Amino acid sequence: MFGLVKAHQVAKDLSYMRIMIANVCFIGSSSRWVLVDAGLPGSTQKIITAAEKLYGEGIPPQAIILTHGHFDHTGAAKDLAQHWNVMTFAHSLEMPYLTGRTSYPPPDPSVSSGLLAKASGLYPRGPVDLGHFAATLPADGSVPGLPDWHWLHTPGHTPGHISLFRSSDGVLIAGDAFTTVKQESALAVALQDEELHGPPAYYTTDWKAAQESVSKLEALKPALAVTGHGKPMSGRTFQHQLKKLRSDFERYAVPDQGRYVD
Q1: Number of folded domains that form the chain
Q2: What is the CA angle 63-45-226, rounded to 5?
Q3: Is 92:136 a contact under the CB 8 Å cutoff?
Q4: How far apart are CA 160 and CA 100, in angstroms?
């Protein structure tokens, strides 16, 4: 229903792979690379196999970078960190959710009639405990292992959500700041039609911050975006939709009702 597991190159030194409902990214060359996000629980071997096909056996990443700590982005994080003996970096505001201290607020199934939204009450909300593998991203916006990239704080979906941007070619890894599929709908996720949407509504707790984050990312004028859910998008259609999402965020992203809407 949710497609095959395979890494696809979408830009220079950048590949992404969809595992069920969420994407992971591989950035870099054969000697130096970084993993962004860690998929659903049970994704460990799939990610290792894909990495070995891209970079060869026995070549660990320089780091694991997490856009945020939700279960569908951290499912294999601890196993991978242990397997490769590498640090896992995230924003300081995500640390409580990654070091066993705090669970996320409960998801809100009332935001949509879509199957994935209705099922969200069953989703794990942590906390994950990465132990000594958890580390805070550098405050200067640099990304460990990726000198050509920088990170931006893009909260709303979670307090410490980040996105990654490479200014040399305008490539953006947006995480869940916005998506390219209507993530609340199982049918839309299965079909993977390319259409810009706001962050997954059932797990977004601060809509004002989410709107400001979309504005911040649109201002970068990215040429291509890989999001946490959905296919990569690029070109004029993508840029037009992102501009439309920014200018009328409440209409296109904010649900009509919900625990966190007001």
Answers
A1: 1
A2: 55
A3: yes
A4: 16
SS3 per-residue string spanning 38-107: CCCCCCHHHHHHHHHHHHCCCCCCCEEECCCCCHHHHCCHHHHHHHHCCCEEECHHHHHHHECCCCCCCC
Whole-number CA gyration radius for the chain:
17
The rounded distance, in Å, linking the Cα atoms of 92 and 42 is 26
Contact 127, 97 (CB under 8 A): yes
Residue 185 has pLDDT above 50, yes or no: yes
Tell me if 183 is assigned to some domain: yes
- Confidence (pTM): 0.95
CA angle 93, 96, 100 (to 5 degrees): 160
What residues make up the domain containing 176?
7-252
Residue 135, domain CATH:
3.60.15.10
Residue 261 within a domain: no
pLDDT band at 1 (very low <50, low <70, confident <90, very high): very low
Taking only the tens place, the pLDDT of each residue in 4-51 is 578 999 998 999 999 988 999 999 987 899 999 999 999 999 999 999
Q: What are phi and psi of 252, to 5 degrees?
A: -95, -15
